[in-house]
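TICKET: design request
STATUS: open
ATTACHED STRUCTURE:
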């Protein structure tokens, strides 16, 4: 068996295949079996910022070490898992 399209854990975590083998005899004899493929997760989704653009205005005499902005990141792998 060969992989022909990329696997995507977030889309499909399990593939169940039915395989049949048949010989060239007369009459042909065959057997069938099931193959279950479990896809494991890899870290293939980069985190995304919650907003595309962040902007902040600061007074010039702001104290050193002041927090100037908080940005929020969304772990997209988590998004796909929870859905
Ligand atoms: Ca993943």
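STATUS: resolved
RESOLUTION: sequence designed for all positions
ATTACHED SEQUENCE:
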């Amino acid at each position: 068996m060969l992989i022909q399209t990329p696997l995507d854990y977030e889309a499909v975590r399990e593939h169940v295949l039915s395989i049949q083998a048949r010989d060239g005899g007369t009459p042909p004899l065959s057997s069938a079996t099931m193959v279950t493929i479990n896809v494991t997760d890899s870290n293939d989704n980069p985190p995304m910022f919650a907003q595309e653009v962040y902007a902040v205005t600061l007074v010039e005499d702001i104290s050193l070490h002041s927090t100037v902005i908080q940005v929020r990141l969304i772990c997209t792998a988590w998004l796909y898992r929870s859905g």
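CLOSING REMARK: The longest helix spans residues 76-82. Helices lie at 76-82.
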